[in-house]
Design brief:
The structure is a single chain. It contains seven helices and twelve strands. It is of the alpha/beta class and 231 residues long. The protein has two domains: 32-187, 3-Layer(bba) Sandwich (Glucose Oxidase, domain 1), CATH 3.50.30.40; 197-230, no CATH class. The chain is elongated, with a radius of gyration of 20 Å.
Length: 231
């Protein structure tokens, strides 16, 4: 099913919703198991002072532990052209480190972050390590990653524009991703526009329960009755 890209205002509305609230909302549509659609805790926000990001995935795979083989690395200029031509925007670069274990060398540092930002990326997500922390934070380029590392080692592109697996989540080019302090979630495009209203309905129920928990009349029996009425 082809879905029209979200407008800037629609994206901004989603960006401001915490990922746990988005996760709860997605559950109400029963379109995927509750154990799927988000990255594990090994991929975490590296710059908590920077804001959440939302955008469409562009993908690549890298290796750092050894030099390229006889065929050589994938072309970085071709990768840059891929980013430049990718639509819709904004983009989020999702880079899978194929090393086992990952984070032998960093793909993202000061230079690569500047390149990706110039080519339309609002941030990056990787299972690898990153470096040049001060410079990347000053640039205002949010990254979710597995670690911090000193060297770029032999980092090179293996390919790009194909599905990748990062943090246990398979990400395909064009997937809509939201990332904040809790982690990274994939938002199904077919329900993306319905998420804010689903969040609102859940919040009404949750606030009613919270208000009762904070009232002087609280009791376990009263809570059970309230939850039953709200179900």
């Amino acid at each position: 099913m082809t879905v029209e890209p979200l407008t800037p205002d629609e994206l901004e509305t989603l960006r401001k919703i915490p990922t746990p609230a988005v996760s709860n909302a997605i559950e109400t549509f029963n379109i995927r198991p509750r154990t799927e659609g988000f990255m594990g805790p090994e991929v975490r926000q590296m710059f908590p002072s920077l804001p959440p990001i939302i955008g469409y995935a562009v993908t690549a795979r890298t290796v750092s532990a050894h030099e390229p083989g006889p065929k050589g690395p994938a072309s970085r200029p071709d990768y840059w052209r891929y980013l430049e031509a990718s639509k819709p925007k904004p983009l989020i670069a999702v880079v899978e480190d194929l090393d086992d274990p990952p984070a032998i060398g960093a793909f993202f540092g000061e230079v690569n972050s500047n390149i990706h930002k110039a080519l339309g990326c609002v941030g990056a997500i990787t299972n690898s390590g990153i470096r040049d922390m001060d410079e990347v934070e000053a640039l205002g380029f949010p990254i979710w990653a597995g670690s911090v590392i000193v060297s770029h080692a032999y980092v090179h592109l293996v390919d790009f524009g194909t599905p990748v697996r990062v943090g246990g989540l398979v990400v395909r080019p064009g997937d809509l991703l939201l990332a904040d302090r809790h982690g990274v979630i994939q938002i199904p495009l077919e329900i993306a526009r319905e998420i804010p209203e689903a969040v609102r309905k859940i919040e009404v129920r949750e606030k009613t329960i919270i208000q009762y928990c904070q009232s002087p009349d609280f009791s376990a029996d009263g809570l059970a009755d309230l939850v039953a009425r709200l179900s």
